[in-house]
Design a protein that fits this description.
- Helix content is 5%, strand content 42%.
- By secondary structure, the chain is mainly beta.
- The protein has one domain: Neuraminidase.
- The radius of gyration is 19 Å and the shape is globular.
- The chain has a five-stranded antiparallel sheet, with helices on one face. Strands 3-4-5-6 form a four-stranded antiparallel sheet, with no helix packed on it.
Length: 336
């Protein structure tokens, strides 16, 4: 198993000391003054992250039906000035906001939201609803149904929906919210490709031009080809058990061509993993352990993560809800 490491070794380190994780050329420092939520936010669970064309940072979170009616926050690219995106109001936020993705369609950017309470929504960046599907969308829909993530396909009018907490199916829609009567997947184990055990995250891989499905309970990322007509064909698997152990639970993955094809994977069991272009783990930041041990922040379960253009990363955590900013540091000096 790849060893978890921190530049702070002493368990008695003061909370004021810098909190640093990762290894080699990929070490990161926790920045507690960034990604501060707006006053009144009740982030019970934090879920999806995206950036828009201007590199503003967006987060979806579960407000647990409390006094906070919001579920969508935007920060500036540097992680400052958090504000609620209230265009959707309770129409967007009622239920359990979960996965978030962004797409550019005819020059306009839209957000695609998957809500665990059987609600699918397309919005403008401020949360204003374009369309919404509340409840079942077809009579023959496999059960149970608890959607987790949408994957829009660049240059296409197709959307792929992962039913990660439900039937483990993948459904195909068009960008206007019409179900196209195409269903793939279903429940399956590690010996089956095209079947899943918690197909939690669905994200388009720009470099491979495939959908990356985070098959969480099977500890793997599976890649699928699409043809623009609604196909969903298995291509290959990245098994994360050799590097992270049998208990690894990858929630989502994103790959960045502009950052030498590195990928970032938040793991529900605690770490955030960084992989090189060959899918080799090159650094692990033990987000859960570092923050719980040092400052009792309660960031127990990384749920989504993404790199920023400057090489920093942000991570959203589930139970309890936290979103944190990690600044990339210079490489560790080599001791001869």
């Amino acid at each position: 198993m790849f060893k978890l490491a921190s530049a702070i070794g002493a368990a008695t380190a003061m909370a004021a000391d810098p909190i640093i994780g990762g290894q080699g050329a990929f070490r990161y420092q926790y920045m507690p003054d960034l990604l501060v939520p707006p006053a009144g936010a009740n982030m019970t669970n934090c879920h999806g992250l995206v950036t828009d064309k201007d590199q503003n940072i967006y987060l979806t979170y579960d407000n647990s039906g409390g006094n906070d009616p919001n579920c969508l926050i935007r920060w500036k690219p540097d992680g400052s000035a958090g504000e609620f995106m209230t265009g959707g109001n309770t129409t967007l936020c009622k239920g359990v906001a979960h996965g978030l993705n962004i797409a550019t369609e005819e020059g306009t950017q839209y957000l695609y939201h998957a809500n665990n309470k059987q609600k699918l929504t397309k919005t403008h960046l401020d949360g204003t609803v374009v369309w919404q599907i509340d409840g079942m969308f077809t009579a023959n829909q496999p059960q149970p149904y608890t959607p987790t993530w949408f994957s829009p396909i660049p240059g296409s009018d197709k959307l792929y929906l992962c039913d990660g907490y439900g039937s483990n199916s993948v459904y195909v829609f068009d960008i206007n919210g019409k179900f196209l009567n195409m269903t793939y997947g279903g429940k399956g184990g590690r010996d089956q490709h095209g079947k899943f055990s918690t197909n939690h995250g669905c994200t388009w891989n720009v470099e491979k031009e495939m959908i990356a499905v985070s098959d969480r309970a099977n500890s793997r990322i599976e890649y699928y080809k699409v043809d623009g007509k609604g196909s969903f064909d298995y291509d290959h698997t990245v098994d994360l058990r050799p590097s992270q152990g049998a208990g690894t639970l990858p929630c989502n993955t994103r790959t960045y061509p502009e950052q030498e094809l590195r990928s970032i994977i938040p793991d529900l069991s605690g770490p955030v993993q960084i992989l090189d272009k060959d899918n080799k783990v090159i650094s692990v930041v033990n987000v859960s352990g570092l923050l719980n041990d040092k400052v009792q922040e309660g960031t127990k379960h990384p749920h989504d993560a993404m790199f920023l253009p400057n090489g920093d990363f942000v991570v959203a955590a589930w139970l309890p809800g936290r979103v944190t900013y990690w600044k990339k540091l210079p490489a560790e000096p080599i001791v001869v």
